[in-house]
Task: inverse folding
C-alpha cells in the first residue's frame, strides 16, 4: 500500500476536501477531541459576550471553530449585504443578523454541508428572515461583480492553499466602497518542516 500524501503533495482540491471532511466531522461530533479548540467555552475565552451567547441555541456555539471574537465586537458595520466566508456553525452569522435588521442581508457561506445544515437548524429557531446560508467555495464565490457591501471571515485563510484566489474573489464581489474584515491566526515562530507537512499539525 502506497504511503499517504503529505499536505505539501496535495492539490488545492484535495486540501479543500480535507478541510470539508474535517469540519463536517466537527459539525456532527463537536464534543470529540480535536487538535484545535471547538465550542462555547472556546468562544467565551476568545472574548465573545457571554450574554449574547446565552440567548442563542446551544448548537450554534457548540461547533464554533473561529480564531477571534472581532466580528462580534466590531461596532462599525453599516446596512447592506454582508457575506461571511467560512461561517461554520453560524455563530458570527447569527450575531450579525441579530444586530443588523432588514433590509440588511447576512449570508453565511461554507464548503461543509454538514456545518450549513447545523447552522440552518439553529437559524430557524431564531426567526431571522434576513440571514441565509449557502454552500460554495471561497475561491469561487457565487455572486456578481460589485454586489456586496461587506465580506468578513473568521479564520479561513490558514486553511486554503489558494489565498490569492480568495482575495481576488473578495475584491471582485465587493462594491467600490465595500469593506473586507478578516480575522486570522498568527504564528509566533516558524513551524518545522514536519509540522508543515503533517495533516494533524496543520489543523492545530
Result:
Amino acid at each position: 500500500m502506497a504511503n499517504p500524501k503529505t499536505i505539501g503533495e496535495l492539490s488545492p482540491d484535495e486540501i479543500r476536501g480535507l478541510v470539508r471532511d474535517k469540519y463536517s466531522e466537527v459539525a456532527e461530533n463537536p464534543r470529540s477531541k480535536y487538535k484545535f479548540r471547538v465550542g462555547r467555552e472556546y468562544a467565551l475565552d476568545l472574548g465573545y459576550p457571554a450574554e449574547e451567547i446565552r440567548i442563542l441555541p446551544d448548537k450554534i456555539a457548540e461547533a464554533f471553530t473561529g480564531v477571534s471574537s472581532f466580528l462580534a465586537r466590531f461596532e462599525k458595520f453599516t446596512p447592506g449585504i454582508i457575506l461571511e466566508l467560512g461561517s461554520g456553525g453560524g455563530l458570527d452569522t447569527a450575531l450579525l443578523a441579530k444586530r443588523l435588521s432588514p433590509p440588511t442581508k447576512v449570508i453565511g457561506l461554507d464548503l461543509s454541508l454538514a456545518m450549513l445544515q447545523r447552522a440552518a437548524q439553529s437559524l430557524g429557531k431564531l426567526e431571522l428572515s434576513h440571514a441565509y446560508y449557502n454552500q460554495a467555495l471561497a475561491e469561487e464565490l457565487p455572486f456578481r461583480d460589485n454586489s456586496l457591501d461587506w465580506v468578513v471571515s473568521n479564520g479561513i485563510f490558514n486553511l486554503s492553499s489558494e489565498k490569492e484566489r480568495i482575495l481576488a474573489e473578495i475584491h471582485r464581489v465587493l462594491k467600490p466602497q465595500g469593506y473586507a474584515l478578516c480575522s486570522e491566526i498568527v504564528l509566533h515562530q516558524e513551524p518545522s518542516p514536519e509540522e508543515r507537512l503533517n495533516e494533524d499539525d496543520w489543523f492545530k
